[in-house]
Specification:
- By secondary structure, the chain is mostly beta strands.
- The chain has one domain: Methylamine Dehydrogenase, Chain H.
- 1% of the residues lie in helices and 40% in strands.
- This is Glycosyl hydrolase.
- Pfam families: BNR_6.
- GO terms for molecular function: hydrolase activity.
- Keywords: Hydrolase.
- One of its GO terms (biological process) is xyloglucan metabolic process.
Amino acid sequence: MHDALLAIGTRKGLFLARSTGGGPFEVDPVRFSTIGVSAVAIDTRSPSPRLLAGIEYGHFGPSVMWSDDLGGTWQEAEQAPIAFPEETGAALERVWQLQPSPSEPDVVWAGVEPGALFRSEDRGITFSLVEGLWNHPHRAQWHPGGGGLCMHTVLPHPSDPKTIAIAVSTGGFYRSTDGGASWEAANQGIRAPFLPEGSQYPEFGQCVHKVTGHPARPERLFLQHHFGVYRSDDFGGSWTSIGDSLPSDFGFPIVVHPERPDTVYVFPLKADMDRTPVDHRCRVFRSDDAGGSWQALSTGLPEDPLHSTVLRDAMCASPAGVFFGTRDGEVYGSRDDGESWFTVARHLPDVLTVRAAVL
């Protein structure tokens, strides 16, 4: 059995949980104890893994820090790692996503608020604005969702460095085939029921909550929308609804099994402003046929009513297992594809992001 690392970003600090030889996870003391950690990444592309954390200093603003000793010590660039050029008139509000590129060894992408994409060529130490997306004519018409104008999804193609996709609330899903120089909206088939009749399938403006895919089948993507769960079989060229048999097609996270491209997980929530699980039952739903059917998974999860939420980045699937955390600070994991669950941590601050890796 392998050793595993779980990185849990919360509104008050970063918690690292470690498992040795498939044993139970043990949670380290908190890092950045009074600081929000909105994004984490575990970069295992080289023999020496690097941890990245998007942090929120409060009055001093957001930043990115890195660790090359699995969280023992942390470093930060001398100048602001992510900063908008002065001529944009914009200021960084939050780092929403840190995503190592699978096809370029030293490249790390960052999705931020307000709705922008940054690229690093030194493994996440310093970043530069992707101006092709920032200057896209649609950007001026993007409007913040409930969580802000957040670029929460960055999907680099697993083998083609020129192809990359992003999602922003509430701009929608966009893709580029020239390394980010130009972009096209790719939202065909995604219904926006909050818009007036006759205009519910716009070119852009959808409230996308999260998008995911699998490197073995890069053309297939899964998307959790504000109202709807969708699949694309052509890298976003068109989308088909796959959420009709779920108890609710509203939710935030969506993740794909690390080895099976047709297996996808969601956490359905009530579609009203309550934002709690359907019937207040803590259940993950899994499809093993790319969304054709779904089954509820709850063995080992709390049976008491759950009045909390799982946020868009607070669920992950990796060779270490499937994990998710709630806004009331509970973190759960599964090593058997969701058939049974165990508790990783309890009583943490509200969980914003979860990432896991085998070391």
